[in-house]
Specification:
By secondary structure, this protein is an alpha/beta fold. About 30% of the residues lie in helices and about 25% in strands. The strands form two sheets. It has a seven-stranded mixed β-sheet, sandwiched between helices. A two-stranded antiparallel sheet has the order 4-5. The model has no long low-confidence stretch (mean pLDDT about 95).
Protein backbone atom coordinates (compact mmCIF):
# COMPACT_ATOMS: atom_id res chain seq x y z
CA UNK A 1 0.00 0.00 0.00
CA UNK A 2 1.05 3.60 -0.50
CA UNK A 3 2.22 5.11 2.78
CA UNK A 4 3.80 8.36 1.53
CA UNK A 5 4.15 10.41 -1.61
CA UNK A 6 6.00 13.50 -2.76
CA UNK A 7 4.98 15.56 -5.77
CA UNK A 8 7.70 17.75 -7.30
CA UNK A 9 8.25 19.56 -10.62
CA UNK A 10 11.10 18.73 -12.98
CA UNK A 11 12.43 21.89 -14.65
CA UNK A 12 16.11 21.52 -15.65
CA UNK A 13 16.80 24.80 -13.81
CA UNK A 14 16.11 22.97 -10.56
CA UNK A 15 19.71 21.74 -10.93
CA UNK A 16 21.93 24.61 -9.68
CA UNK A 17 24.68 23.85 -12.21
CA UNK A 18 22.21 24.42 -15.04
CA UNK A 19 20.70 27.55 -13.52
CA UNK A 20 24.06 29.30 -13.11
CA UNK A 21 23.70 32.83 -11.76
CA UNK A 22 19.92 32.40 -11.61
CA UNK A 23 20.16 29.42 -9.25
CA UNK A 24 19.02 31.44 -6.22
CA UNK A 25 15.69 32.12 -7.93
CA UNK A 26 14.61 28.53 -7.27
CA UNK A 27 16.18 28.08 -3.83
CA UNK A 28 12.76 28.12 -2.17
CA UNK A 29 11.48 25.46 -4.57
CA UNK A 30 14.56 23.29 -4.01
CA UNK A 31 14.07 23.50 -0.26
CA UNK A 32 10.40 22.58 -0.60
CA UNK A 33 11.25 19.60 -2.80
CA UNK A 34 13.87 18.46 -0.29
CA UNK A 35 11.28 18.59 2.51
CA UNK A 36 8.74 16.67 0.44
CA UNK A 37 11.25 13.98 -0.51
CA UNK A 38 12.65 13.65 3.01
CA UNK A 39 9.14 12.77 4.18
CA UNK A 40 9.47 9.55 2.16
CA UNK A 41 12.28 8.43 4.46
CA UNK A 42 10.27 9.21 7.57
CA UNK A 43 7.53 6.88 6.32
CA UNK A 44 10.02 3.96 6.45
CA UNK A 45 8.88 2.43 3.14
CA UNK A 46 9.93 -0.96 1.86
CA UNK A 47 10.39 0.55 -1.62
CA UNK A 48 10.43 3.95 -3.26
CA UNK A 49 9.23 4.32 -6.85
CA UNK A 50 9.58 7.35 -9.11
CA UNK A 51 6.92 8.21 -11.70
CA UNK A 52 7.23 10.92 -14.33
CA UNK A 53 5.98 11.90 -17.75
CA UNK A 54 7.96 11.15 -20.91
CA UNK A 55 7.56 10.73 -24.66
CA UNK A 56 7.21 6.99 -24.33
CA UNK A 57 6.54 4.39 -21.65
CA UNK A 58 9.46 2.77 -19.88
CA UNK A 59 10.34 0.92 -16.71
CA UNK A 60 13.86 1.22 -15.32
CA UNK A 61 15.60 -0.53 -12.47
CA UNK A 62 17.30 0.86 -9.41
CA UNK A 63 20.63 1.18 -11.24
CA UNK A 64 19.28 3.30 -14.11
CA UNK A 65 21.21 6.49 -14.88
CA UNK A 66 20.36 9.85 -16.37
CA UNK A 67 22.12 12.99 -17.53
CA UNK A 68 21.20 16.66 -17.91
CA UNK A 69 23.64 17.09 -20.82
CA UNK A 70 20.85 17.81 -23.35
CA UNK A 71 19.95 20.84 -21.22
CA UNK A 72 23.44 22.28 -21.07
CA UNK A 73 25.51 20.61 -18.33
CA UNK A 74 26.43 16.93 -18.00
CA UNK A 75 25.14 16.47 -14.45
CA UNK A 76 24.92 12.71 -13.93
CA UNK A 77 22.36 10.78 -11.92
CA UNK A 78 23.47 7.26 -11.15
CA UNK A 79 26.17 5.39 -13.02
CA UNK A 80 26.29 3.74 -16.40
CA UNK A 81 24.70 4.65 -19.72
CA UNK A 82 22.12 7.43 -19.25
CA UNK A 83 18.65 6.17 -20.16
CA UNK A 84 16.26 8.10 -17.90
CA UNK A 85 14.10 10.85 -19.41
CA UNK A 86 14.19 14.34 -17.90
CA UNK A 87 11.45 13.90 -15.32
CA UNK A 88 12.97 10.70 -13.92
CA UNK A 89 16.50 12.12 -14.02
CA UNK A 90 15.38 15.06 -11.88
CA UNK A 91 13.57 12.61 -9.61
CA UNK A 92 16.74 10.58 -9.19
CA UNK A 93 18.68 13.75 -8.44
CA UNK A 94 16.19 14.74 -5.73
CA UNK A 95 16.47 11.31 -4.12
CA UNK A 96 20.27 11.37 -4.24
CA UNK A 97 20.30 14.73 -2.44
CA UNK A 98 18.38 13.12 0.43
CA UNK A 99 20.50 9.93 0.35
CA UNK A 100 17.57 7.86 -0.84
CA UNK A 101 17.30 5.42 -3.73
CA UNK A 102 14.48 4.23 -5.96
CA UNK A 103 13.64 0.59 -6.48
CA UNK A 104 12.11 1.43 -9.87
CA UNK A 105 11.58 4.35 -12.22
CA UNK A 106 8.45 4.52 -14.40
CA UNK A 107 8.07 6.77 -17.43
CA UNK A 108 4.45 7.46 -18.34
CA UNK A 109 3.61 8.73 -21.86
CA UNK A 110 2.03 12.16 -21.92
CA UNK A 111 -0.87 10.70 -23.92
CA UNK A 112 -1.45 7.70 -21.64
CA UNK A 113 -5.12 7.08 -20.95
CA UNK A 114 -6.57 7.70 -17.52
CA UNK A 115 -7.31 3.98 -17.28
CA UNK A 116 -3.73 2.98 -18.03
CA UNK A 117 -2.42 5.49 -15.49
CA UNK A 118 -4.78 4.19 -12.82
CA UNK A 119 -3.78 0.59 -13.54
CA UNK A 120 -0.11 1.46 -13.11
CA UNK A 121 -0.88 3.23 -9.86
CA UNK A 122 -2.67 0.18 -8.48
CA UNK A 123 0.18 -2.10 -9.50
CA UNK A 124 2.83 0.11 -7.92
CA UNK A 125 0.86 0.42 -4.68
CA UNK A 126 0.80 -3.39 -4.49
CA UNK A 127 4.58 -3.75 -4.94
CA UNK A 128 5.23 -4.10 -1.22
CA UNK A 129 3.66 -3.67 2.18
CA UNK A 130 4.87 -0.07 2.43
CA UNK A 131 5.38 1.87 -0.80
CA UNK A 132 6.49 5.49 -1.16
CA UNK A 133 6.14 7.33 -4.45
CA UNK A 134 7.95 10.34 -5.88
CA UNK A 135 5.74 11.88 -8.55
CA UNK A 136 7.38 14.28 -10.99
CA UNK A 137 4.71 16.65 -12.29
CA UNK A 138 4.87 20.14 -13.77
CA UNK A 139 1.72 22.25 -13.76
CA UNK A 140 0.33 24.36 -16.58
CA UNK A 141 2.67 26.30 -18.85
CA UNK A 142 -0.09 28.72 -19.89
CA UNK A 143 -0.36 30.83 -16.73
CA UNK A 144 1.08 34.16 -17.92
CA UNK A 145 1.73 36.15 -21.07
CA UNK A 146 5.35 34.96 -20.98
CA UNK A 147 4.55 31.30 -20.38
CA UNK A 148 5.90 28.79 -22.92
CA UNK A 149 2.32 28.07 -23.99
CA UNK A 150 1.17 31.70 -23.78
CA UNK A 151 -1.64 32.87 -21.52
CA UNK A 152 -4.83 30.82 -21.41
CA UNK A 153 -7.51 32.09 -18.99
CA UNK A 154 -8.54 28.50 -18.23
CA UNK A 155 -5.08 27.57 -16.98
CA UNK A 156 -5.02 29.28 -13.58
CA UNK A 157 -8.29 27.78 -12.26
CA UNK A 158 -7.26 24.38 -13.63
CA UNK A 159 -3.87 24.61 -11.91
CA UNK A 160 -5.37 25.90 -8.66
CA UNK A 161 -7.92 23.08 -8.55
CA UNK A 162 -5.14 20.51 -8.78
CA UNK A 163 -3.15 22.12 -5.96
CA UNK A 164 -6.22 22.38 -3.72
CA UNK A 165 -6.95 18.70 -4.27
CA UNK A 166 -3.35 17.68 -3.55
CA UNK A 167 -3.57 19.65 -0.30
CA UNK A 168 -6.48 17.38 0.68
CA UNK A 169 -4.53 14.23 -0.20
CA UNK A 170 -6.49 13.82 -3.43
CA UNK A 171 -5.97 14.04 -7.18
CA UNK A 172 -8.89 15.60 -9.07
CA UNK A 173 -10.37 14.24 -12.28
CA UNK A 174 -8.03 15.41 -15.05
CA UNK A 175 -9.30 15.41 -18.60
CA UNK A 176 -6.34 14.44 -20.83
CA UNK A 177 -7.47 16.65 -23.71
CA UNK A 178 -7.94 19.73 -21.51
CA UNK A 179 -4.61 19.09 -19.77
CA UNK A 180 -2.86 18.92 -23.14
CA UNK A 181 -4.47 22.17 -24.27
CA UNK A 182 -3.22 23.88 -21.13
CA UNK A 183 0.27 22.37 -21.35
CA UNK A 184 -0.26 20.64 -18.00
CA UNK A 185 2.65 18.22 -18.28
CA UNK A 186 2.09 16.42 -14.99
CA UNK A 187 -1.35 15.04 -15.84
CA UNK A 188 -0.36 11.42 -16.51
CA UNK A 189 1.99 11.10 -13.53
CA UNK A 190 -0.63 12.55 -11.19
CA UNK A 191 -3.22 10.10 -12.49
CA UNK A 192 -0.84 7.28 -11.61
CA UNK A 193 -0.80 8.66 -8.07
CA UNK A 194 -4.60 8.79 -8.09
CA UNK A 195 -4.69 5.13 -9.10
CA UNK A 196 -2.97 4.06 -5.88
CA UNK A 197 -6.24 4.59 -4.04
CA UNK A 198 -4.39 6.03 -1.08
CA UNK A 199 -5.90 7.92 1.82
CA UNK A 200 -3.15 10.22 3.06
CA UNK A 201 -2.82 13.72 4.46
CA UNK A 202 -1.66 16.40 2.02
CA UNK A 203 0.59 19.39 2.68
CA UNK A 204 1.49 21.94 -0.02
CA UNK A 205 5.01 23.24 0.57
CA UNK A 206 5.37 25.37 -2.56
CA UNK A 207 3.01 26.71 -5.21
CA UNK A 208 4.20 29.36 -7.65
CA UNK A 209 4.94 30.01 -11.33
CA UNK A 210 8.33 31.76 -11.41
CA UNK A 211 8.75 31.25 -15.15
CA UNK A 212 5.11 31.13 -16.16
CA UNK A 213 4.92 27.39 -15.44
CA UNK A 214 3.09 26.02 -12.42
CA UNK A 215 5.50 24.40 -9.98
CA UNK A 216 4.22 22.80 -6.79
CA UNK A 217 5.87 20.68 -4.12
CA UNK A 218 3.56 18.55 -2.01
CA UNK A 219 3.97 15.81 0.54
CA UNK A 220 1.42 13.14 1.43
CA UNK A 221 1.89 11.34 4.72
CA UNK A 222 -0.05 9.01 6.99
Amino acid sequence: MLVAAAVCPHPPLLIPELAGAAAVELDELRAACASAVSALRVAEPDVIVVVGGADRAGTYGADAAGTLAPWGVDVRIGEGEPVLPLSLSIGGWLLEREHLAAAEFHAVPSDATSQDCAALGRRLADMAGRVAMLVMADGSACLTEKSPGSLDPRALPFNEAVVRALARGEVPELDPARAAELWFAGRAALQVLAGTGSSLNGDVLYDDAPYGVGYFAVRWTE
